[in-house]
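User: Hey, my collaborator sent me this sequence without any context and asked if I could get a structure. I don't really work with proteins. Can you help?
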Amino acid sequence: MMKVDTNNKIQIKNRLRDETINRQADCKENIIYKITVQNDEVPVLPEHKTVLESLEAANIETHSHCRDGFCGVCRVTLISGNIHYPNGEPLAYVGDDEILPCCCIASSDLSLEID
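Assistant: No problem. I've predicted the 3D structure and written it out in structure-token form, which is a compact way to encode the shape of the chain:
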């Protein structure tokens, strides 16, 4: 009969648990903000250059065309939060409660309504 080293099993189990916790912490540290769309929460990560990229990375269906703020096809309703247009205000018309996710970045957590 083979003898089982319970100390070794416990060490392996603890190491796996610690690695999982560290991976989760690394993921949370990379999240800058979150975007809430209907009942979905979307992380905004440093590699996302625009709100649209964050939505697309989470497979949230959003219409888009020019990706530069010229056409307005990606227009969505901003329920709460703050955004910034790093390249200046878009050329397409944007209502008071609307944003163009193709050319803006989140400066806080956002809540959006997408038609």
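In plain terms: The two ends are 66 Å apart (CA to CA). You can pass these tokens on to your collaborator as they are.
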